[in-house]
Amino acid sequence: MNYIILAANQKYVEHMITTIKSVLYHNLSTTELRFYVLNKNIPNEVFEILNKELNCVGVSIIDAKVINNEVAKFNTLPHISSETTYFRYFIQEIFNTPDIPNNVLYLDCDLVVNGDISELFQIELKDNYVTASKDFIAENNLENYLSLNGNYFNVGVLLINLPLWKQDNVARKCMDLSKEIINKVKFGDQDILNLVFKDRWLKANRFFNYQLGGDFVFGKDSEIIEKLPGNQIPLITHWNTEAKPWLANMNIRFRELYWQYYALSWEEIRQKYNV
Q1: DSSP β-ladder status, 103-107 and 157-161
Q2: How far is CA 88 from the centre of its chain?
Q3: Residue 246: which residues within 8 A CB-CB, separation 6 or more?
Q4: Sign, Cα dihedral of 92, 87, 5, 130
Q5: Using CA atoms, how far apart are residues 242 and 171, in angstroms rounded to an integer?
Q6: Which residue has the higher pLDDT, 75 or 13?
Q7: 20 to 30 A Cα–Cα from 122, which one of 1, 209, 217, 270?
Q8: What is the largest CA-CA distance in the chain?
Q9: What's the rounded Cα separation, in Å, for the pair 59 and 56?
């Protein structure tokens, strides 16, 4: 069984479902899946309806409520404006049995998966907290940000070393540091996780978390924007920053992929796998 963790609020449910559909479309034949959704206010009925569809293909989704009033006091970027971004701190608390998985995958809900991700769960993390991709914007715009010598990752896609998170109580470390410096950093929980995991994260290639926010920040015709050959599509396309593909005025690469999975029906997924 492979576990995928999402975090969302009620406003993001349709985008969360789009992410889930993209995962299912490419992965039902290669891995058993279970989703967990960290949330505060998504109605139970949403999970009941989703489970009716997911159970038909041997998948389930778990409503993982986060009860923590402290994170609501923490600053967020304007385009986020939700305490939900801090919920990833508490991933370790979902799993409370002795036989916890070694690796779990966290995904933001402003991304889609475009291929088989089963091999990601086999990555050997050793004494690293996560596997992640470097943050494209910070790498190209913020020299030596947080004195990390350019070793700064994006938190939208994380392969997590769950036993190590529990052993070192990552949730508590992140909360303690947030209370101390959250008003002094630019990027909220992403900065906190980078500081907590300093020198103990494994660098993944850019396709693990292909960040399209650079198109918005630098302009998609900028020289620093990578031009992919032919029709090459990254494994995971992530529309970080406020430039989301569901916004009408955002001319950003790969937005058609979002709408492809948004329009994908549950019946089409079942038909692909003959279930």
Answers
A1: antiparallel
A2: 9
A3: 15, 258, 262
A4: negative
A5: 27
A6: 13
A7: 270
A8: 53
A9: 7
CB 91 within 8 A of CB 5: yes
Residue with tokens 């993390």: 125
- List beta partners, residue 113: 236
> Helix 188-196 vs helix 170-181: angle between axes, to the nearest 10 degrees?
120
> How long is the chain?
275
Query: Which of 19, 132, 129, 15 minimizes the C-alpha distance to 82?
Result: 15
Question: How far is the CA of 253 from the CAs of 22, 121, 130, 244, 247, in angstroms?
Answer: 17, 28, 27, 10, 13
Per residue in 44-69, pLDDT (tens digit) is 999 999 999 999 999 999 999 998 88
Does residue 211 sit in helix, strand or coil? strand
Q: Are 56 and 147 in contact (CB under 8 A)?
A: no
Q: Residue 231 carries which side chain, given as an amino acid letter?
A: N
C-alpha span between 23 and 48 (Å, rounded): 19
- pTM tops 0.85: yes
- How many whole angstroms separate alpha carbon 189 and alpha carbon 77? 10
Tokens 């004195």 belong to residue: 147
Tell me which H or E stretch contains 167: helix 162-168
